[in-house]
Amino acid sequence: MKSFRNRRTLIVLFLMAILGYQCRENHTVKKESRVAMLPYYDDPSFTPKWINSQSDSINGLHRIPKFKLINQLGDTITEKTFDNKIYVTDFFFTSCPGICPKMTKNMNLIQQEFKDNEEILLLSHSVTPQLDSVPILRHYAETKGVLENKWHLVTGERRDIYNLGRFAYFVEEDLGFQKSIDEFLHTENFVLIDKKRHIRGIYNGLNKTAINQLIADIRTLQKEN
C-alpha cells in the first residue's frame, strides 16, 4: 500500500511539472522591468545613456528619422503614424523559413498583451519588399492574426528599408562593419521606440525571456510623462 501511494505521488508531481511547463510555454510570464527608468540608446554600440526623460539632454540624441512606407492594407505609413505612440519594430520577410515564424509568433504575444491599448503599436518591415507586395502582406497578416491598425507590416523601396534597419534602428550587430545595399539584412532583434522616436531597448526576438522583459519595459515606458 505504501509503495502504491509513493507511485501515485510521483505521478501527480510529474503531471504538475508538465502542466507548469506548458503554462510557461503558452502564456507570457508577468515580469517587472529591471529598472524604474529605461536608458536611451544613441548609436550602434547600444551603450546605455541614463538620462531623465524631462532633461534637455535628450534633445540631441539619435531619433528615428522621417520615413514613408506602405502597410498590408495599402495605407501610407510614416513617422507621423507613431506620433505620441510607443512602438516595437523588427525586420522580417513572409517567405522566411528560419527565424521569422518564431519572431512573428513572439511579436504576436506583444500584440495580445497590448491589443486594447491604443498607445502601443507594432511595426514589421519586409526585407524583401520586391517580393512582399501589399496582397502578400495582407494574406500573411490574415494567417498570423495581425490586427489592423495595431500591427503594421510594411513594404517600400529596398534602400529606404535597409537604411532604416542599419542606420536608424541599428538592428544588425556587425558593429563597425559597413554593408552595401546589396547585402541581405537579416536580424532577430526587436527594438523599442518611445513617443519621441528615441531608441529605448533592443531585445532578442527569438527568446521568450527577452520578450517578457520587453513587455515589462513597455509598461515602464508608459509611466514616463
Keywords:
Glutaredoxin, globular, 2 domains, 9 strands, single chain, alpha+beta, seven-stranded mixed beta sheet, 225 residues
Secondary structure: elements and pairs:
Layout (H helix, E strand, L loop, with lengths): L1 H25 L13 E2 L6 E2 L18 E4 L4 E3 L7 E7 L7 H14 L6 E7 L7 H11 L6 E5 L2 H11 L20 E5 L5 E6 L3 H15 L3
Parallel strand pairs: 5-6, 6-7
Antiparallel strand pairs: 1-2, 3-4, 3-7, 5-8, 8-9
N-end to C-end Cα span? 65 Å
Mean pLDDT: 86
Beta-strand residue percentage: 15-25%
Looking at the structure, what is the overall shape? Answer: globular
What is the succession of H and E elements?
A: HEEEEEHEHEHEEH
Q: Name the helicity range.
A: 25-40%
Please give the order of strands in the largest beta sheet: 4-3-7-6-5-8-9
CATH class of the largest domain: Alpha Beta
Number of helices: 5
Radius of gyration, rounded?
A: 20 Å
Task: Characterise the protein shown here.
Strand 6, helix 3 and strand 7 (151-155) form a beta-alpha-beta unit. The protein is of the alpha+beta class. Helix content is 34%, strand content 18%. The longest helix is centred in the N-terminal third of the chain and has 25 residues, at 2-26. The chain contains 5 helices and 9 strands, in the order H-E-E-E-E-E-H-E-H-E-H-E-E-H. It folds into 2 domains: 1-30; 33-222, Glutaredoxin, CATH 3.40.30.10. Strands 4-3-7-6-5-8-9 form a 7-stranded mixed β-sheet, sandwiched between helices. Strands 1-2 form a two-stranded antiparallel sheet. The radius of gyration is 20 Å and the shape is globular.
